[in-house]
Structures are given as C-alpha cells and as structure tokens.
Amino acid sequence: MFVLVEMMDTVRIPPWQFEMKLNDSIAEELNKKLANKVVYNVGLCICLYDITKLEDSYIFPGDGASHTKVHFRYVVFHPFLDEILIGEIKGCSQDGVHVSLGFFDDIVIPPESLQQPAKFDEAEQVWVWEYETEEGAHDLYMDTGEEIRFRIVDESFVDTSPTGPSSTEASTSGATEEVQKKEAPYTLVGSISEPGLGLLSWWTNS
Amino acid sequence: MKDANAALLSNFEVFQLLTDLKQQRKDSGKHKQSSGQQNLNTIMYETLKYISKTPCRFQSPEIVRDFLIAMKGHKLTKAEKLQLLNHRPMTAVEIQLMVEESEERLTEEQIESLLQTVSSVLPGNPAEELQKQATTAAEEDDDPE
After folding, report:
1. Where in the sequence does UniProt note compositional bias of the Low complexity kind (chain A) (predicted)?
2. Do A60 and A91 fall within a single domain?
C-alpha cells in the first residue's frame, strides 16, 4: 500500500527560521509542501521518512533566505496493481460503488467489476448483488458504511496544474468557470468480481 | 524525483513512523501549529486511523522478522508476503486472492500450512486479543494504588 520514494528538491528556509536546527526546518518545509498532496505519477504523499543527503546551503542576492538542495525519502500511498485493499463504502451512483480509505477517497468500482449479476436499486440509490443459490435469489445490498475488500485494477493520474488563460468564446461570464470539472488528481479503479471480494460480511464463516 | 519505487513499506512500518512522529510533535510543544502544518496533521490523523484498524497494530519488528523467516520456505514474491503481513488472512479464499495462480503453485496442504504459519506467527486473532486485554486489566485491578 505504501512505498518509499526517493526525491530531490531545493528547500527555501526564510531567515526567521535560522534559529531552528537545519534538519528540523527542512523537514517542516518538506512536509508543508508535500503532505496530503498528490504528486503526478507517484501517488499521495503522506509524510517524510528521512533526509539522506544535504548539500551546501546558498544565499542568493536579493533574497535573504537560504536555499538547500536536499535528497530525501518520502512515504507515499501508491498501491500496486492487483493489490487487495479493505475500505469503506461511501456511496453508490450510476458510475459504480465509491469506496474510501479515510485518508484517500477517490476509489470507484465500476458496475462491470461488481459481482455479477448486479443491479442498481434506484429507490435506495444502492447497488445490489443478486446472489443465486438453490433456495432462490438473495439480494445482497452494498450499503454505505460497510467494509469492503477489493482489488486494484487500474489507476489514473491527471495533471491538475493550472493552465494559462485559454481563448474564450463570445459568451464568457462567471458561470462558465463553474462548468469546469473538478478532477481528482489520482483515482483508483477497483474490482470485486472474484470469490472473496466484496463486503466482508458476505464471506465471514461465523 | 529520483526513484519512484525505492522500497515497499509494510503497514506496520508506516504505523510506527506515524506514531513516533505524532509523539515527537506532541513533545515539541505547540509552536508548529501554523496553517502550513494542517495538511500534515490531517493526513497523519486519517492514515493512523485507517492503519490502526488493521492487524499491524499488534505487530512488532521481531514479529515481522520472524514472519519473513517463516515465509522463506513457501517461495512467495515480495508483494505476496507483504499482503499476507498486512492482511493476516484466515481463510483459503483470502490466500488465493493474494497469491497469484495459487491453484498452480500451492497444494491444499501448502495453503493450510500457510494459514497455520500466519495465525501462529502474527498476533491478531480477535478472541485471543480480547483475552489478553482482559488479563492485563485484571492484573491492574489487583495492584493496590
């Protein structure tokens, strides 16, 4: 689930922090910059693991702060393909079942990857697995708040860095800005179409 | 960015790191409560909350080491051993999910022996843990304050 990522960056320490030990102020700056943020094609950064190398600090003309090149390792959330994870169902929609891990919310299980046959109950807005046995069909509901075990089948990173002002059409107004979709920078696609996957309550013996 | 995949971390290692970091920050006092640290606080809190519900909260470095030694004979990949460590599977179905092509690589007895190793080396059997907690609570009551 978590990986260690080696990174290198130049950290700027403003003069009023010079009284702190260099390692502490660098750690604070790195965490400020990266914690809880998604790095493109890497994953969700959690916290600093350690600093492996500090190069010399320089002060440039015009800026009183010191700049230091730092080599460090960061703990990143980046599950590998086919990894099994346990999360909580946040809700269901036509796009599928939305699962959250608490610290990471953008996981979706599309309808084709649910245990088949499955149908969407419009009244309750919930996906249902129509489980057939010799006695008849049982409807197993995928309710919000239930714990669910799933497999990662795909991930996608979207570059959400701001783009310059694009050429606008004639009808520009404040309203067009709201039409811009807010895309999650990092989404995971899961699947539960295997024995053992799905709500934990479906597979416990007791 | 130097190496986007330098090492895999087990949930236990992240759990230890975050608990230590939390302790450090508590000890150093409130001067780091600037808005910049809010992100770190949020992610640490949520991640710790999630990991604390997994079997790794009962683990220790010695247990992890013993587990890896016990796993040597079974010829599993690093990723498979990591999943077994993080999830502590108790049924054959879970093992089949985590081990690729388990029908071809493991016989039923091997799966059974894997389950045995996992339950014996890794703590986390809910009934056992409840019992342990009950005995420690009883011992504390006996000690006169």
Report:
1. 160-177
2. no
